[in-house]
Amino acid sequence: MPLNILLLLLGFVLLIKGADFFVDGASSISKKLKIPPVIIGLTVVALGTSCPEAAVSIQAAIAHSNAIAVSNVAGSNIFNVLVVIGVCTLFASIPVQKDLIRRDFPICILLSVMTFIFVLDKNVSRIEGIILTGCFIAYVLIMVISALKNKSESEDDIKEYSLVLSIIFLVGGIIAIVYGGDMVVDYASRIARALGMSDTLVGLTIVALGTSLPELVTSVIATRKGIVDLAVGNVVGSNIFNLVFVLGSSAMISPITGLTGDVIADFLVVLASIVIAYIFCVKSKSFSRPKGVVLILSYVLYTAYIICRNYGFLGL
């Protein structure tokens, strides 16, 4: 058991550091090709922060660990909204930009509804995966077009490395992500079996927490530095990417079948959490500390519920 936990942590390190190297290498190469920084941020960097979730879910789908593949997405999205935003409000009140309220929040809610409908039959087919992936491409195009219209010339802070080092970062990052994802799925499943935990519970807790660490760390550091606008945007953007890119690509590569009723309930919580967050910010245009505490307590209650559900304390 201790060795499995150690190797699981190593898998998370490979995932997170691999994503960092991937972003650095790809951004550097993009800069050498004179691609505008705003486009790099909305494509390469956004994809990079979703790489841990994508690697785990795709590897799990290929290994037919369907519960982990889907629960990772649900767990990450719930964690992002309830914990990441909640923890950030402990450091400062977080204003929410108009574009997030008028465009990104509604898009995230719409995609959450669509995903909930897709899992109702306890399957996510290849066709549904293609639809989600198409939504991902459409969302990126919308963001790029919007950003180019409001482009700022002062956002050129991307590090540029030599071409050889950039390629090493890019390739090494991809290798670390692939192997890290494989390790996380493998050893999380072993730990689950040893502790009597279902794959669904592992995906919702251990795996979701591990793959959401980049969003948590990024948002908390940004908030502590006073860059509070980034926190909510990072969460909403990550949730959209998880739904359309991570789940979509997983189902497109290997259709996800045989899901349980618990997964349907979890995706209902995904939808409810983003709707509650939207209601919280739509009037005051910000997240205050009391609202953040409510979000954190909601996550504590949800975690207690899924643990009780796993061990049959609720008679489920």
Structural notes for this entry:
With 316 residues, the chain is mainly α. Helices cover 81% and strands 1% of the residues. The chain is built from ten helices and two strands. It has helices at residues 2-32, 37-62, 66-89, 98-119, 126-149, 163-195, 199-224, 229-253, 261-284, 289-310; strands spanning 94-95, 286-287. Strands 1-2 form a two-stranded antiparallel ribbon. The longest helix has 33 residues, at 163-195.
Quick take:
The chain is 81% helix and 1% strand. The protein is built from ten helices and two strands, in the order αααβααααααβα.
According to DSSP, the number of beta strands is 2
Spans where pLDDT lies below 50 across 5 or more residues: none
Please write the string of helix (H) and strand (E) elements: HHHEHHHHHHEH
* Amino- and carboxy-terminal Cα gap: 28 Å
What Rg, in angstroms, do the CA atoms define? 19 Å
Write the layout of secondary structure elements.
Layout: H1 2-32, H2 37-62, H3 66-89, E1 94-95, H4 98-119, H5 126-149, H6 163-195, H7 199-224, H8 229-253, H9 261-284, E2 286-287, H10 289-310
Antiparallel strand pairs: 1-2
Helix pairs in contact: 1-2, 1-6, 1-7, 2-3, 2-5, 2-6, 2-7, 2-8, 3-7, 3-8, 3-9, 3-10, 4-8, 4-9, 5-8, 6-7, 7-8
Keywords:
316 residues, two-stranded antiparallel ribbon, 10 helices, mainly alpha, 1% strand
